[in-house]
Amino acid sequence: MKIALLVPGGVDRSGTHRVIPCILWLIERLVAAGDEVHVFAFRQEPRPGTWPLLGATVHNAGSAPRRSRMLAQLVAEHRRAPFDILHPLWAIPQGLVAALAGRLLDVPVVLGLPGGDLAVHPDIGYGGMLKWRSRLMTRLALKGADRIVVPSDFLRDQALACGVDAIRIPFGVALDRWPARTAVRRSPGSPLRLLHVASLNAVKDQPMLLRAAAALRDQDVDFRLDIIGEDTLGGAIQRLAATLDLDRLVRFHGFIPHAGLRPWMEQADLLLVGSRHEAGPIVTLEAALVGVPTVGTAVGHIADWSPEAAIAVPVGDSAALARAVARLAADEEERLRLALSAQQRAIAEDADVTAIRTRALYRALVRPPVGIG
User: Fold this and answer.
1) Residue 29's closest CA among 180, 179, 174?
2) pLDDT digits (tens, 9 = 90+) for 127-166
3) pTM
4) Phi, psi torsion values for 132, nearest 5 degrees
5) Cα dist. 310→173, 191, 208 in Å?
6) What is the rounded CA–CA span in Å between residue 284 and residue 301?
């Protein structure tokens, strides 16, 4: 099959920096299966360009007008040899471009919704369904898709609430790059090692995590919290930590490339997620594979897995998050049980399974060549 993946970015020439690992894992597996893969990136680099990556060809739209350039690149490559499938990730703008191209070229479209396309959070200005313009563009992308794919049951329920029938295909982790490791029992009397991996932004709601950390301190829970992620809020979260007198307990490490995250996960006892919205998140799967369960808000995989393989609390409820962490701090057997159950789920739906299910969906939609009866 000849496949067009439409992405916002995450496909840098280096293959290591400014990348989205789960997209790279899918590309690798499609290429390994014998597919011809072309990746159309919306804004990987400021200038238009083309380069090879993992056996695929990346076409970068570059600076404005990005949408029309991406469409022109896609049409030109289709004329060289027709595409069998267009697979945009995110509705705006990739899904919108793919919907137009699919209609123009008569190629089926599989629209992936791995983020906040259907979310509405007016207090933080987040969500593809928040404003009339983005709602219109999202609806056009949805209408132009032959199939819609989401990574979690949580998001599938959200889609159904919007009148959208979606298929769940999780973005699994590549076990050859991120192998499973048996959970490690905590040393008696050692501080509880907590980890949070996410960009510092309003959607990830780090203030809620810090309020939970303050509550844990006030409950005399011995812990250390490491926060890893790019700061997009100009130091506001660090200042809040200081205001809450958490400097001794909370450490900020800034952005760390994906390849450097594993040691941090391996030394953690629990992963914390405080997000207002998540479709996944992948970090929960990666933590599960190294034997670390997640305590977090009821979004994405956390909502799907709770209470058997994760602990979910209401969005924004720092007191509930603190209680859940304190309970696991005092119950090592339960923490290990959660770790084992989470790991089994992450292994059962790894990156290989993602590729197999995705290719099966492609094959079900591919149209037979004209003139072949």
Assistant:
1) 174
2) 999 999 999 999 999 999 999 999 999 999 999 999 999 9
3) 0.94
4) -60, -35
5) 17, 21, 18
6) 7
